[in-house]
What does this fold into?
Amino acid sequence: MNRLSGKVALITGGGRGIGRAIALRFASEGAAVMLAATKREPLEATAQEVRKAGGRAATTVADVADEAVVKQMIAATLAELGRLDILVNNAGIGGPTLRVVDMDRADWDRTLAGELGEHGITVNAIAPGAVRGERVEGVIAARAAALGRPADEVERELFVEPTALKRMVGPDDVAATAAFLSSDDAANITGETISVSAGFRA
It folds into this structure.
């Protein structure tokens, strides 16, 4: 399937986890990918995977919290890949495992974001459930420590049992949804939040 043939995608947080899975999926569907993140090593590793599979990939080290760096990231994409059709805002942080009233202002400012789509550009959000990988493992460990309970019990009780499918989500599940939303098959879907959570209900 080449639903993204001829398109260029910029994927932030593209070196590991969900970003890596999205990059590999987009490349398999024909897109050239620019991978951005704060650390070069995982970016280059993912880019090599894309290239070995016959895809086209470039990388740029960027912190999306810095507006000037974001502009450089866009310019690098245009310079190296010639255009920009798809932006995947995947970069994120684990965030503190705290109640909102216990957060300091710096942490609060880092968990806020806003997007607006105009001029026929579709803008959608994917709301994944707990996605297996390093980040959620850290969240589970922190929650277990806070509760004074074993991590496997916390994972089962708080992250698996509340789902309809009794499992956590994989990075490839999120990547498949991102590929669909970036394709012409989803041309009339915009302003939506798509849940990929295995039916999580708190």
Summary: The first strand starts at residue 8 and ends at 12. Confidence is low (pLDDT under 50) at residues 112-117.
